Amino acid sequence: MSYRLGVDTGGTFTDIALIHEQTGEVHVAKVPSTPHDPSEAVINGVREIVSQTGIDVKNISFFIHGSTVATNALLERKGAKTALLTTKGFRDVLEIGRQSRPKLYDFKARKKVPFVSRDLRIEVSERIKANGEVLEPLDPEEIREIAHRLKREGVQSVAICLINSYMNDTHENMIRQALQEEYPEAYVTLSSEVLPEFKEYERTSTVAANAYVLPKMKGYLNRLVGSLKEIGVRSELYIMQSNGGIITAESAMHTPARTVLSGPAGGILAGLFIVETTPYKDLITIDMGGTSLDTALIEKGRPQYTTMSEVEGSPIKLPMIEMHTIGSGGGSIAWIDVGGALRVGPQSAGAVPGPVSYNKGGMEPTVTDANVILGRINPGYILNGKMKMNLELARQVMKEKIADPLGITIEEAAEGILKVVNANMIRGIRVISIEKGHDPRNFSLVAFGGAGPVHAVEIGKELGCQEIIIPPNPGITCAMGMLMADVRHDFVQTVLSGVAQLKLDDANDVIARLAEEARGQLHKEGFADGEIHLQVALDLRYLRQAYEIDVPIRGLKLNGEMLEQAVNDFHRMHHKIYGFSREEETVELVNIRLIAIGAIPKIRFDKREGGSETQEALPSRQVFFDGRFVATPVYNRSGLRAGAVVEGPAIFEQLDSTIVIHPGQKAETDDYGNLLIHLYNA
């Protein structure tokens, strides 16, 4: 008997999913997050799920964790004191960037301050040509003097990013060796290991961000590994990556920048399970928790990927699932701006003090408070009744802070908050749909997170979706998705050449070297050859374009026919994304990428027992819809069988979320426990 356990740390709650490997039986739990040390909530969650189920903690064979430690360190500017060593003349690359304005029409807009202050950006006398040839050798004595300076100034972490080191990493390795000899306490990050690609700004920014969060992430993971061993967990700790794959805790300590979107990526994997088990292959996912909303798109059963994201104004150029995050969650605070307009977020009440209704000291009205006031969330049921909510205090604060200043009723104020936060979320969804050439009317909306199913119908109707899909455990979906992930490593090498001039033998030599490195890494992690799957992609662009498109190819050996097909695919993808293509233009190959997957055996989930009868409703309650309270049946979702049909209005309650069905909609449960809401009035 063995179990897999997934833990997703959010801003308000930490979610736990436990799955029996042989039967697919699922158990879930939620515990409040502990922002001062997220590992405490992880251990609390493990103890909670073990207490609920009575299992022996030694039977947990696989432990996967989605962490927000790296993300929060970047967002809150609470990383380590970091220095950057770079080639002489490139000290201000982080400051100069791409010379783009953060807000085009705001004359007072200012760029975010880099993670490394200018006094700790240190120039090194060395130079390597673009072909990898050493032009100016490194002076070891200069590096020793720099090491002594870093030690005197109390620098904890050092980022090393030399120009053209992606072609020749000799000097970066020499600097690391000297630092380890003179200042062994310092953490060191090399750009040639984190991101061996050209484009000095993105490479420098990525390695600086990695170095900035590395000490904090390493300390956190070491504490967590120790705490898990103390309570008897034998499984190695795995960490979710932003690319939808998992890595060992040891790898995450080395490159924590790969975990920036760690938790939300699990939700996309749960979306892929929906693709496999339902007729719906085109999905927009929304993950709305207590602090933020993460949204992504799956087209024809495949998530969208990107190699470029931005955190706090700084690019991070690493492969990841393409998502858009906005500060709209259940804990988002409602406020009135100087012009008298109602605003919601991005400030959040978080886990501490939380929404007013949580009765933990919060005194600012939030989205959750609005839902409680309107009857959409049961004030006596949250977390299976373990957490009671203070409705009267929520109404009092709503009246004082929003309703009275605007001259409206408490219910109108609460409904206004929901309309504003929904509008914010819809704008965010359009970033990954309409702005990328996708019509949301052709997609189904998958809503999860603790708050997602509460808002799903209104968002789906506004987007024009025909149906909404709510997974069986929406509030634990990211933790569940992590348990469906494989180990994944990404490898890349810059090969800058026109496609017509590309020497296929040279390109295949690069692919073979990357494949050998990938297999070696996965063999080291215990995977057999039959469990290893490799995928090659080419980064293509029109001559002198600033950005590339990632084009997958079949097989591990490139030939003329495959290259021609890749170019045709590039033109097609360019037209879809940007609205035009130029077949007569020269196409350049920029990078060769290789994705290495170590396949983990998948858990089989049986179909649920059928039965068209609907569970008897619990006592109904008054719920506010379209300007008035309506008597609304309430159901315990756990009692719904496959094929059960419910007409709206209705409320479904469960441990981890609440689902709101509006008047005029119909909901039915499918064979795998998903709730399908048909938007007849969309």
TrEMBL record:
User: Acetophenone carboxylase-like C-terminal domain location, by residue?
Assistant: 508-679
Keywords, in A-Z order: Ligase
- Write down the superkingdom of origin: Bacteria
The EC designation for this entry is 6.4.1.8
* Residue span, Hydantoinase A/oxoprolinase domain: 203-490
Q: Where is the Hydantoinase/oxoprolinase N-terminal domain?
A: 4-182
Q: Give, as one word, the top-level EC class.
A: ligase
Q: Which Pfam families match?
A: Hydant_A_C, Hydant_A_N, Hydantoinase_A
Q: Which InterPro entries match?
A: ACX-like_C, ATPase_NBD, Hydant_A_N, Hydantoinase_A, Oxoprolinase-like
Q: Name one GO molecular function term.
A: ligase activity
Indicate what this protein is called per its UniProt record. Answer: Acetophenone carboxylase gamma subunit
Name the species this protein comes from. Answer: Paenibacillus konkukensis
Q: What is the lineage of its organism?
A: Bacteria, Bacillati, Bacillota, Bacilli, Bacillales
